[in-house]
């Protein structure tokens, strides 16, 4: 994981205007321990988040969470970036709700939103204030403005998973996905998640199929494989260790599951990533 080197020591956030590939060292595939809001000003280039490639578009805002894999080698043009540490938004229910609405820490949410011209114009005013607060190193003001910045972005965030179109979503689906994110390492069966929300396993799977196009079990496997790919790419842990950390005592079974999902074994995946 790349440390918070773009956030100065003793501060909780940093504002950056980036042209091309600067500052050095943050563009290679990496995982960092802070949140990042990346506002693209032009429609040039692309990057990948958690191994999925996304094109840049004018006034597209990307929302990147800690632990996600970010490959920014093909980013081009102007970018406005706010990086901030998690502890800034752990204090109040309203702040936590803002982060939830924006889709932070949701592995299978589309990690961006698109602003219209009016939205970009209004957000630019907040951006200018953020820059001033950052230059003055006024941490209290920067934190307050960042809260407003994120809250404004919530106006443009639709609930969109990687396998569905924007829609009004049953809150029970959000609850199921939140539970999977918390417990996918320990609980692999639908029954646990169904019992937690007081539904039958059949009804729980119906909700997920209707909203996400996949069952609870498939969602769990997807999340397991995503975490495995992160570990295979950024650590030297043996496959057996990764399997155990993800809740599989039988590493051979885990390897078969991974191959069925990704088309190659964990070992071959690691070799492919380092070619």
UniProtKB/TrEMBL annotation:
GO terms for molecular function: DNA-binding transcription factor activity; sequence-specific DNA binding. The keyword S-adenosyl-L-methionine does not apply. It comes from the Bacteria. The lineage of its organism: Bacteria, Pseudomonadati, Pseudomonadota, Gammaproteobacteria, Vibrionales. Residues 174-272 form the HTH araC/xylS-type domain. This is Putative AraC family transcriptional regulator. Keywords: Activator, DNA-binding, Transcription, Transcription regulation. SUPFAM superfamilies: Homeodomain-like, Regulatory protein AraC. It comes from Vibrio ezurae NBRC 102218.
């Amino acid at each position: 994981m790349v440390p918070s080197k773009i956030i100065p020591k003793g501060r909780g956030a940093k504002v950056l205007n980036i042209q091309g590939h600067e500052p050095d060292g943050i563009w290679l595939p990496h995982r960092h321990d802070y949140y990042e809001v990346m506002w693209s000003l032009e429609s040039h280039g692309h990057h990948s988040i958690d191994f999925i490639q996304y094109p840049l578009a004018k006034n597209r805002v990307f929302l990147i969470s800690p632990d996600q894999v970010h490959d920014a080698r093909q980013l081009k043009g102007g970018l406005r970036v706010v990086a901030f540490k998690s502890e800034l938004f752990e204090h109040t229910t309203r702040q936590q709700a803002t982060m939830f609405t924006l889709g932070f820490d949701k592995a299978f949410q589309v990690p961006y939103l698109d602003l219209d011209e009016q939205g970009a114009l209004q957000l630019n005013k907040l951006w200018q204030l953020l820059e001033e607060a950052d230059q003055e190193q006024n941490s209290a003001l920067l934190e307050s403005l960042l809260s407003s910045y994120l809250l404004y972005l919530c106006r443009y965030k639709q609930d969109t998973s990687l396998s569905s179109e924007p829609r009004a979503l049953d809150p029970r689906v959000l609850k199921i996905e939140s539970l999977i994110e918390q417990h996918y390492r320990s609980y692999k069966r639908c029954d646990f998640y169904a019992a937690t929300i007081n539904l039958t396993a059949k009804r729980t799977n119906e909700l997920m199929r209707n909203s996400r196009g996949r069952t609870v079990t498939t969602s769990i496997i997807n999340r397991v494989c995503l975490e495995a790919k992160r570990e295979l790419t950024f650590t030297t842990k043996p496959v057996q260790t990764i399997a155990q950390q993800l809740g599989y005592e039988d590493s051979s079974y885990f390897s078969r599951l991974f191959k069925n999902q990704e088309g190659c074994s964990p070992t071959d995946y690691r070799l492919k990533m380092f070619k």
